[in-house]
Amino acid sequence: MLMQMDRRSLLALLGSLGLGTLVPLGRAAGQTAGQTAGQTAGQTAGQSAAPGGRGLFLMVDGIGPAISAEHLRQFLEPFAARMTPVALGLRPGPDGFGPDLLTLLSGAMTGFPALFEPVLRVDALAGLSPYAQMRVVARELAALEGALVPAGPLPVILSLATDAPARPVSFDALRALGLRNVLLLGPLQQGSAQKGGSRILPCDGAAICLEGSVALGSDAAELAARLSDRKAGDTPLLAVIDAAAMTSLPLPDLRIRAEALVETMTRAVQSGVAFAVQPRAHLGWAAPEAARRIALRLDPPEPGDTEAEAGLRAMAEALAAQGWPVSQTLAAAEATGPKDVLRLGDAVADMADWATARADGGAMPCAVGTPASTAEAGALAAAGLSVLVEPKVPGAPVFDDHGLIRRDEIRDAALLAATPPGADLILALGPDSYRDPARREVTLAEITAAATDGRTIMQDLAAWAGDILPADPVFAILRETRRTLRQPEPPAEETAPDAAGLLDDARHAWMAIDTSTIAQTGLCPATMHSTPDGSIAYGTLTMWECGSLLRAVLAAGELGLIKAPVMVARIERILSVLPVARIGDQRLPSELISSDTAQPMSPDFNAFDTGRLLSALAEVDAHPATNGKAAPVVARWDLAGTLTDGRLHSFKRGRPVEAHVSQAAHYVARAFGAWGLAAASPYMVASDGSETDRQMRLLTAVTAVGAFGAEPLLLEIMEMGASDAASVLADVLHAAQRRAHGATGIYHAVSEGPLDQAPWFAYDGLRLNDAATRWESRANSSDPAYNTPEAMQATLRVSTKAAFLWWALRPGAYTAGLLGYVRDRARIAGGGFSTGIYMATGNPMAGYTDVNTNAIVLETVAFVLRGRRRRVTAPDFPLPLPG
Prior knowledge:
The chain has 27 helices and 35 strands. The chain is α/β, with parallel strands linked by helices. Strands 1, 2, 3, 4, 5, 6, 7, 8, 9 and 10 form a 10-stranded mixed β-sheet that branches. Strands 11, 12, 13, 14, 15, 16, 17 and 18 form an 8-stranded parallel β-sheet that branches. Helix 5 (220-228) runs parallel beside helix 7 and helix 22 (713-720) packs across helix 25 (800-809).
């Protein structure tokens, strides 16, 4: 709150802090003692003297517990005496401020809010997602408030300073925390027309940035040199002085330098070259982006208070007549209007259902009150609640570890005029504001004054929340997932397959593999396409497909489709033809081999495909019937040579190529781990913080890689046991597919796989960072014609193997319907299942099947009939190294 003081009161407070006599800097005709340098009659401390150009901002940066209170006092005193604004860049750290420094800071900021603006100093925000920005800054803001609260009332903090990013970055997320003004410290970025100063620009819209600063010593000559060639209309200038360097000076020298700085600024102001203001003053120069938003809310009276009920109706009518939207606070059963907000106090389940219904409808659910417990707050956040209005708890984060924004409110309209310009507010009007007609008219007049000041937008609370909360599609999809999963999925319908039906599916899938197997090699073609004119087989196998084939044979033996001796013989035959090639300086399996001859068909090594093979070989080596048979094969390969600092590498043209950034890397790293080779995964993110923090780190890492689908994600869960990362991603993908089906009626089951037309192979998956285009089909081709939005929509498929995997791992109404959809359409006469069904047309790839699809059908059937458990003899697949 801005405190307006007369000269006598101001002098008395200055004296109590040990600050000297006031002599306003360069006072112009008509200026009063209560106005800062550059302000004229009629302007308040929060208003600018002119739009933009000549603003001069001075900030002392890095004020923390190690800074001497006496040094800071000696520096600030001349500025206070001349009524010259100084911003205070605060870094309390875990230890807060010492008592003397705390007294000085609190007295300066709350006693002279027009002179000393608090600025929260936070480093390294530029590379963070909106969620991560809010979490980091919320913690730092809470620490600052916690450090200041022992000294008395907290100042309003609107500004944050951070290092200037190398490229444009959005800081809009900070508005949700109450921060509107971002100071980007460092030289202006290349390409800017301004040189040696600062510029004001929207940081994507919701936050306003002052970009560019100059670092000064405490020597006035440096500032004088910066100001000497400036002219009216030049760009603003943010000058920054390092508090630590200032503290190293002897006190008398520091005082002399501070007085010289003030004198330099005085001359600049008197000559019309600059005017000195607080950094947050520039919010008024960036309209309309800088307009503050005030949320209006009416709180109903107690039942039976007829006078207040009449006043409530009159107030609502008066606000509506002015065109100002307003929310009402109601219980869950009554809060049915689009502007209504929830009053806490009902059963948690009822409140959670309200929040989910509101969020699913596209609104921004808001509630008023204090949750009964941390568990209740978490349940409401998981259900979709976005903003919680409750009394401020100094030192508590505004953005909590549930992902909930917690904001305070004001309950007196008179306070609207006393808050700094640019501060977003929630005004709650209770019975005291509207019961009495005279008081109601005063309240309306105070609201009118704010609404017509040219820098305020009046809104209902839900619209207010929608405007100040940042767009973070990754966080949004995590919240969608939680809302979806909190609503129990209906049980599987009667159409779900029984054991006999599943066994028949396995038999049909095995028929395609069995009848196409080449006796000489034990291998089968990668794909087969049957048409009325005959059949075409693609006889080149990847190591991934070799791994799938081994697992298919194991499943066929387990299901009784072949006898145990036949199973062993088939596996031994496949093991005998796995290649060993000299690739670079290593002995490695070739990327491709011929199914007819088992001869290498490529000079390269693929780490991902080999990972699938290693997974299957570990299973073979642990199986009682084939125990120890795979280890000699793996021993022939120099797999350790494909790892550098734990990162996987493929080989292209004899040279290693890093293969770490992939959605397959996590699965493959676990497969390497089964053979004692420790590999890293991009999914292994830092484990500190809340569950939401960890999940957001994971989803952010996944987003950086790209879209992801069922493979190898669900293969990891089924074959290796679920890691935390795989469980989270499976939840996100499953929930997104369920929601897409609910919205469109089209089943979704995305994965990678071959196509029966050019470009012949595509990776279908979910994109986390694009709500408008969530489903992607990325062609395995460099031809841009195959990766247009239209082409991607045309090749999106309901994957047959993904449908079986989902039924195996997430049995329920959706996956039962999905499996039934696939079984009805993808079964191929004569054996095998079609690779998939085109989502755009509902047509299957007629007669087109592949070894991976049929192998995974076999594998999932065995898994389900085993009780949805891994084999008792399954090997251990260790978690990867941190990525």
